[in-house]
Write a structure and sequence with these properties.
Keywords: Oxidoreductase. Belongs to the short-chain dehydrogenases/reductases (SDR) family. Pfam families: adh_short. InterPro entries: KR_dom, NAD(P)-bd_dom_sf, SDR_fam. It is a single chain. With 256 residues, this protein is of the alpha/beta class. The longest helix is centred in the middle third of the chain and has 29 residues. Strands 3-2-1-4-5-6-7 form a seven-stranded parallel β-sheet, with helices on both faces. It is globular, with a radius of gyration of 17 Å. It has one domain: Rossmann fold. The termini are far apart. The structure holds NADPH dihydro-nicotinamide-adenine-dinucleotide phosphate. NADPH dihydro-nicotinamide-adenine-dinucleotide phosphate binds next to helix 1, helix 4 and helix 6.
């Protein structure tokens, strides 16, 4: 095994939604592999404690309070990361949210909020980071999809549309930016115990047990389950991997 294959020393990662849940799990993995990390989120106290956690792992870390649905705030955030950390090698488009309603009850403002947060943000952040990723000569973009990129979801129409869109957007960027040596891949998480799913777990009768019954690994995922795949997709180990959408789901998606 070549020990440098997964080494991210000297690299800079931007992780949107890096202050909790899956994003923090990935940020910790990237930091443990040596990357400096910029934590992007709106909640400044959560971001400050994520930064403390990452610094304790021996890397540089900064928090940049940003709403990823605000294009000019995203441009300013990318400029600040380049100025303070020296460039961008890795962009993780992870910020996301959901509104639980069937298609006939969802309001247009709710649709827009979910699409803006989950899908348009990936476009805005990727476009803003592209010059820095290109300048790095070995850029990596990791977009976070979902099981709802694959399966129908009667309870989350905008969420499913945004996550389906993430996979196609990933393929478009992978094709467009291959010549710049930027690899672009998607991760499709299964059911993970985070703030995003906690309310559904409490409100939807039987959901917790149904997920356990359908998941071959027989457990919910944790943020820490995403550290390894983030390091792989951010490192030289994945230099010939692009345009993929990789389920990280304990086997959920292979069950009929
Ligand atoms: P969390 O609710 O724990 O984290 C969501 C993160 O996104 C937070 O850090 C939040 O930070 C950030 N965020 C949300 N909206 C914005 C915004 N407008 N601007 C900036 N940051 C924002 O959820 P998860 O960790 O579960 O979700 C992470 C990703 O994984 C999402 O894309 C989600 O769709 C996806 N996913 C999750 C699954 C699960 O089972 N949990 C399953 C499949 C996919 P802040 O509030 O500070 O802004």
């Amino acid at each position: 095994m070549n020990n440098t294959l997964f080494d991210l020393s000297g690299k800079v990662a931007v992780v949107t939604g890096g202050n909790g849940g899956i994003g923090l799990g990935m940020a910790r993995g990237l930091a443990d592999a040596g990357a400096a990390v910029a934590v992007i989120g709106r909640n400044e106290s959560k971001s400050a404690s994520a930064v403390d956690d990452l610094r304790r792992r021996g890397v540089k870390a900064i928090a940049v309070a940003t709403d990823v649905t605000d294009g000019s705030a995203v441009s300013a955030m990318i400029e600040r990361v380049v100025r303070e950390l020296g460039g961008i090698n890795i962009l993780v488009n992870n910020a996301g949210m959901s509104i639980r309603k069937p298609p006939h009850e969802l309001e247009i403002e709710e649709w827009r909020k979910v699409i803006d947060t989950n899908l348009t943000s990936a476009f805005v952040c990727s476009k803003a980071a592209y010059p820095a990723l290109k300048a790095s000569r070995s850029g990596k973009v990791i977009n976070i999809g979902s099981m709802m990129s694959i399966f129908g979801a009667s309870f989350a129409p905008a969420y499913a549309a945004s996550k389906g869109g993430i996979v196609q957007y990933t393929r478009a960027c992978a094709t467009a930016w291959a010549a710049d040596n930027i690899q672009v891949n998607a991760i499709l998480p299964g059911w993970v115990d985070t703030d995003l799913t906690r309310a559904a777990r409490q409100q939807v009768a039987g959901l917790h047990e149904r997920v356990l019954a359908r998941t071959p690994a027989a457990r919910w995922g944790a943020g820490s389950d995403f550290a390894g795949i983030a390091v792989f997709l951010a490192s030289a180990a994945s230099d010939f991997v692009t345009g993929t959408a990789i389920p990280i789901d304990g086997g959920y998606s292979i069950m009929g």
